[in-house]
Amino acid sequence: MDRTEVDTTIRTLLEPFNKKGVAISDGTSFTDDLEFDSLTVMDFVAAIEDEFDIIISMNQQAEIENYGQLVDAVVKLRG
Predict the structure, then answer these.
(1) What is the pTM of this model?
(2) What is the pLDDT along the chain (79 residues), one digit of tens a residue?
(3) Radius of gyration (Cα) for the chain, nearest Å?
(4) Which of 12, 18, 36, 46 could form a disulfide with 40 if both were Cys (CB 3.0 to 4.6 A apart)?
(5) 16 three-class SS
């Protein structure tokens, strides 16, 4: 699965969490732009982990600040 396919899948998973209909780009911040709280982050990460059959560690989550970093992390974890 290449970056484009991962991006498309994550965008689909993100839709129900994007309450304000924010336009998503690689620079979209989860806390500033999407206004995710900790519970929303946990639910969103769980959806990604289930979809891609991966585990995103707490350390990795702390380093992911925007959408592009998330896509790159998932691509890397998928190997």
Answers:
(1) 0.94
(2) 899 999 999 999 999 999 999 999 999 999 999 999 999 999 999 999 999 999 999 999 999 999 999 999 999 999 8
(3) 11
(4) 36
(5) helix
